Amino acid sequence: MLSSNQLTQIVHKYLGLYNSTDCIQQFCKWTVRESTVGGRGIIATEDIPCGEVLFVDRPLIFGPRCGNVIRGCTVCSKFEDDGFFKCSLCALLLCSTECQDFHTDDCNIIAGWKKKVDIEEIDEIVMSHALAAIRALSLNQEQKQFMSALAAHTLPQHGGEIIKLKQYFEIPEEIEKDMIFACQALDTNAFQIATPYGKKEMSLRGLYPVAGLMNHSCLPNATYSYNDERQMIVKTSRFIAAGTEIFTCYSGILWGTTTRRSYLFKTKHFWCKCERCADPTENGTMLAALCCLANECTTGYLLPIEPLKSSSSWQCTACGLRVPSKIIYKIQVALGTLISTLDFQNLEQMENFLMKRVTKFVPKVNHIVVDLQCRLIWEFGDVQGYRWHELTESRLSLKLVLCRDILATLAALGLEDSHLCGLLFYHLHATLAERARRHPDLYDGLKSEIESTIERAYRILRGDISAPVDLELRYRYLGPDCEKPQQERFSILSI
Ligand SMILES: [Zn+2]
Ligand SMILES: [Zn+2]
Ligand SMILES: [Zn+2]
Ligand SMILES: [Zn+2]
User: Fold this and answer.
1) Cα 377 to chain center, whole Å?
2) Which ligand is nearest to the CA of 74?
3) Average pLDDT rounded to a whole number, residues 340-363
4) What is the pTM of this model?
């Protein structure tokens, strides 16, 4: 195994920060060292202010995510349309002759294996899932060394993509081993790559080797985003004191503790014991809270007494009722089933469910509700029938309240500079701006918040591939530095 110093050198070289020690000092305020939570981690070597870029990582390998069931072009990630075809040499799905010209590296590897079946019989979803691992075969020695220095889970479920691939091809044992190792490294370390805002593209995963060295916390102090070259920009999301470990969050940031911990255990094989997981209220956000089961108790929340124990009873914050973990588990499963019946494309159904049904079972602060609220925020103002000019006043007000509520939750978790916050500031701004566009007499009262919210959104999201397309335009016309008269500022909204 490589020492931390050797690994630091590889990391610096990979990031282009090598040569003299001075040079590294100048650019890099962190190093790779033993972590406080086990294994290795990235540790700050000096104080780092909030919002500073820590490093820009690029993927060693990337490819479609294993959860994808939709068919998409394996080169440009576009969803299925009429023109899709399977390459007659490698069975990868392509959308055009242009993309075919781009896939020769992948094609050459796969076409070199003897086929056990006809091309037509090969499932392109299996090909798509195995593609990232297949690409690991093209790595050079140095890149392979870096990949092998990353943590990798060796349980039998990691590498299932390759077992399926072997139904179709005769793959030499050494190559199979290398691909299985790539799957293990991917499952342990890969990040989902963001897609451009509003564009429907196949979801990709990438093995970002430097970011992969960051350990997990449910209260992370770093945030990341992607630019249009699939580079990952990792920034501090709070002030980080020298000697502190730099953490990212591997799970949904707004999921409740039970959901986060079981996801982390299932996918990353550890039980998180961070400060947030140990706090039943999760910094006062109550994201995991369920409604009290006592009929007469209308205001109480059920929360785990000992959140780090999955067998812990839950207790009501108001009447003190204790509920055993088995019953809580049944309620959570039933809720999951209820949510799975929802059609997320049907906004009216979702809105009804959110406003009238779900809060009978869970409080408004519960993460299931928060997730549905986010979905409504993203769609209101954007989709057919709910575009800005079509939104009723009550929907506009609802969007405003939801943005503010979720921003308050994120603030309680200390995540004001996260990507999600940037998006919420953008939507809060757009809602306020729409209100001022409809009622110009309200503009004076709303002006300072319209300006400050787009400024915050712009500061967090600029350069981010998943930022809304009119982010910059809105910042220029409706941000604090715009000197244009009111009417001209709002001209961008009437398009
Ligand atoms: Zn394509
Ligand atoms: Zn091909
Ligand atoms: Zn945690
Ligand atoms: Zn109660």
Assistant:
1) 17
2) 1
3) 87
4) 0.89
Cβ atoms within 10 Å, residue 305:
12
Ligand whose nearest atom lies closest to the CA of 250:
3
Identify the pLDDT of residue 80.
66
Read off the pLDDT of each residue in 173-197 and give the average, rounded to a whole number.
Answer: 92
Q: Determine contact, residues 425/407, Cβ cutoff 8 Å.
A: yes
What's the length of the chain?
Answer: 495
Q: pLDDT tens digits for 210-248?
A: 999 999 999 999 999 999 899 999 999 999 999 999 999
The residues spanned by each domain of the chain are 4-58+208-248, 63-190, 380-494
- With both helix axes pointing from N to C terminus, report the angle between 4-14 and 141-148 in degrees, rounded to the nearest 10: 130
Least confident of 148-157, 212-221, 436-445: 148-157
Buried b or exposed e, range 181-202, using 16+ CB within 10 angstroms: bbbbbbbbbbbebbbebeeeeb
The percentage of residues in the chain with a pLDDT greater than 90, rounded to a whole number, is 72
In whole angstroms, what is the distance from residue 437 CA to residue 470 CA? 16
Chain-centroid distance, C-alpha 162: 25
Q: Report pLDDT digits (tens) over 269-305.
A: 899 999 999 999 999 999 999 999 998 998 899 999 9
Separation of CA 57 and ligand 2 centre (Å)? 29
CB atoms inside a 10 Å sphere around CB 467: 22
**In this model, does residue 153 exceed pLDDT 80?**
yes
CA distances from 121 to 88, 96, 124, 306 (A): 12, 21, 9, 52
Q: Cα of 465 to ligand 2 centre, how many Å?
A: 29
> How is domain 4-58+208-248 classified at the CATH fold level?
Beta-clip-like (2.170.270)
Environment class of residue 359 by beta-carbon count within 10 Å: exposed (0-12), middle (13-18) or buried (19+)? middle
**Ligand having the closest approach to the CA of 105:** 2
- Say how many Å lie between the CA of residue 235 and the centre of ligand 1: 32
Check if the beta carbon of residue 414 is closer than 8 Å to that of residue 219: yes
Rounded-to-integer distance, Cα 143 and Cα 25, Å: 24
Question: Residues 296, 298, 300, 304: is their CA dihedral positive or negative?
Answer: positive
Ligand nearest to the CA of 110: 2
